[in-house]
Write a structure and sequence with these properties.
- By secondary structure, the chain is α/β, with parallel strands linked by helices.
- It is built from 9 helices and 12 strands.
- It has one domain: Rossmann fold.
- Helices cover about 30% and strands about 25% of the residues.
- The protein is globular.
- It starts with a strand and ends in a 19-residue tail after the last helix.
- Belongs to the MetA family.
Length: about 325
């Protein structure tokens, strides 16, 4: 089944060229089916690139998904045309009276910035708090995972001495958990962050189920027992070239970055990298849509309430 996005969104042509079923609003309106409503709060600077990456993963499902894009504020963007933002993105005030089946909050390049120094921190907290009563399941990605842990568990910011950058092997825990269905015992996923997510620390200070970890990268995947909050500390949405582009950017800014681990052939940045995590990324998002959203959400979103959710698989 397709994802449903605005007809002129740049991602439409890209995804169609990849043989991904994208349905325009006109055709979708004629179908007698209740699509899932998923909101993406895009905090990344290159919004067109990021929205395409997430839409690609959301498309790998038999469910029809109606996607809306949300921006954090109306400040001008250095990396995304104003016309694109004005055409395809909504302000929070436009959606705050509605309910959604799913919310994805992307990462942001704020690893070395204290929460209270983030210009939109108060507004982000407002949106995260709103989601408790208006969203069936929220997926926090990378920096957003750290922000979500601060809001839900009052955990302080924990920063690594060096940036974690590369592709790391992870081991699954609780192999029968719905989010992990179909996962290999060990799988690869990319990370690009300064945040520290120690398994021992999260186990001691939260009630989260820790679902996948790495000896080097720490916790990769965790969720509340009711599956209404899912934390992914890496970037399963990244394209093959994304870590390379970040590495080149950091070099250009004189940051002397480390070469991303387990990424380039023979650790040689002159060699083209390939995505070794693509299948995992698609499966993760498919499982989230199915088991955390579709099988938990009320059919009538206007009747959204805590009682609508069950803790059964």
């Amino acid at each position: 089944m397709p994802i449903r996005i605005p007809d002129q969104l740049p991602a439409s042509d890209i995804l169609r060229n990849e043989n991904i079923f994208v349905m325009n609003m006109t055709r979708a309106a004629s179908q007698e089916i209740r699509p899932l409503r998923v909101l993406i709060l895009n905090l990344m600077p290159k919004k067109i690139e990021t929205e395409t990456q997430f839409l690609r993963l959301l498309s790998n499902s038999p469910l029809q998904v109606d996607v809306e894009l949300l921006r954090i504020d109306n400040r001008p963007s250095k990396n995304t045309p104003t016309e694109h933002l004005d055409t395809f993105y909504r302000q929070f005030e436009m959606v705050k009276t509605r309910n959604f089946d799913g919310l994805i909050i992307t990462g942001a390049p704020l690893g070395l910035v204290q929460f209270e120094d983030v210009i939109y921190w108060d507004h982000l907290q407002t949106i995260m708090t709103w989601a408790k009563d208006h969203v069936t399941s929220t997926l926090y990605v990378c920096w957003a995972a750290q922000a979500g842990l601060k809001l839900l568990y009052d955990l302080p910011k924990r920063t690594r001495k060096e940036k974690l950058s590369g592709v790391y092997a992870h081991q699954i825990h609780s192999p029968y958990h719905p989010i992990l269905r179909g996962f290999d015992d060990t799988f690869l996923a990319p990370h690009s962050r300064y945040a520290d997510f120690s398994a021992d620390y999260l186990a001691e200070h939260t009630d989260l189920e820790i679902l996948a970890t790495s000896e080097t990268a720490g916790v990769y995947l965790a969720a509340t027992k009711d599956k209404r909050n899912v934390f992914v500390t890496g970037h399963p949405e990244y394209d093959a070239q994304t870590l390379h582009n970040e590495y080149v950017r950091d070099l250009g800014e004189g940051m002397d970055p480390i070469i991303p681990v387990n990424y380039y052939p023979n650790d040689d940045p002159s060699q083209p990298p390939s995505a070794s995590w693509r299948s995992h990324g698609h499966l993760l998002f498919s499982n989230w849509l199915n088991y955390c959203v579709y099988q938990q959400t009320p059919y009538d979103l206007d009747k959204f309430s805590e009682s609508a959710f069950t803790k059964d698989d």
